[in-house]
Amino acid sequence: MSIEFKKIDYTYSVNTPFQFVALKQIDLNIEMNKVTAIIGATGSGKSTLVQHLNGLILPTSGQLIVNDFVINANVKVRNLKSLRKNVGLVFQFPEYQLFEESIIKDIAFGPKNFGVPEDEANKIAKASLKLVGLDESYLEKSPLDLSGGQKRRVAIAGILAMEPDVLVLDEPTAGLDPQGAKQMMELFKKLNTVHNKTVLLVTHDMEHVYNYCDNVVVMKKGEVFLNSSVNTFFENTTYLDELNILAPNIIRLKNMLKNHNIDVSGCDDIHSICDKIVKELK
């Protein structure tokens, strides 16, 4: 199983005055069963890149491989519905995806659309709702009665109900308060570690990248600037300066301590850093 972009180009509004090249010769392998962050400045091609993964948009040129699905430019995609079951795409404001009169109907809609009988679809809906941290008391409520964070959880439950192997999330914590964002990120990490989902996360939040992701893909002007582990990325201050990225708090703390001749290399959290400082002071 793999996700591989081979020389992918994508151009919006071809042969019109509004033609715009969004992706240029993308060669990229995304590691399965990991949490991968997709980062970059606004307009760098992040959202365009991930929308290819379930066939929402198709490449202008090149080839995309998603598990057993092969998508070639200018070739009609067969069994696109099956691809979209395999790759769940959650938009920046997934609560806009809610349209049914009750939550159970909304979550069960996807499985029923794939031919699952109503009773079984409802069982899947209940399990998916539990997975995102909401109990069955929400099932008969209207989505309109929920808070923003609860709506987002229900929308994600609707994607999970289709049991995708790959979960793609475009700015999933946008508009959430810090506690809600933390809970959401912990949910995605759990889906990866406990339920073996491959998670791709489009984000601007470097704290989330550092604390929850394994790998990072950096997009710049429609091209892949870098594909590396999170640790390698944040260890290289040249990349951060070139991309005008503010490092996570813990990285900045480690650099400050290093400038004061306190070596905290190998410490990845605040507790281990504090222990190291105490030992240095002694």
Provide a short characterization of the protein structure.
The chain folds into two domains: 243 residues, Rossmann fold; 35 residues, no CATH class. It has eleven helices and ten strands. Strand 1 and strand 2 form a beta hairpin.
Number of strands: 10
CATH H-tier superfamily of the largest domain: P-loop containing nucleotide triphosphate hydrolases
CATH architecture of the largest domain: 3-Layer(aba) Sandwich
Task: Give the low-pLDDT segments.
Answer: none
| Helix-strand topology string | EEEHEEHEHHHEHEHEEHHHH
Name the strands of the widest sheet in spatial order: 6-7-8-3-9-10
The portion of residues assigned to helices is 25-40%
Count the domains.
2
CATH topology of the largest domain: Rossmann fold
> Can you tell me the overall shape?
globular
Output the number of helix runs. 11
Distance from first to last alpha carbon? 51 Å
Overall mean pLDDT: 89
Describe the sheet with the most strands.
6 strands, mixed
Strand content: 15-25%
Compute the CA-based radius of gyration.
Answer: 21 Å
What structural category characterises the helix and strand content?
Answer: alpha/beta
Give me some keywords for this one:
282 residues; alpha/beta; Rossmann fold; six-stranded mixed β-sheet; four-stranded antiparallel β-sheet; 10 strands; 39% helix
SSE topology:
Blueprint: E1 3-12, E2 20-30, E3 35-40, H1 46-51, E4 61-66, E5 69-72, H2 80-86, E6 87-90, H3 103-113, H4 118-131, H5 148-160, E7 166-170, H6 178-193, E8 198-202, H7 206-212, E9 215-220, E10 223-229, H8 230-235, H9 237-242, H10 249-259, H11 270-281
Parallel strand pairs: 3-8, 3-9, 6-7, 7-8
Antiparallel strand pairs: 1-2, 1-4, 4-5, 9-10
Helix pairs in contact: 3-4, 3-5, 4-5
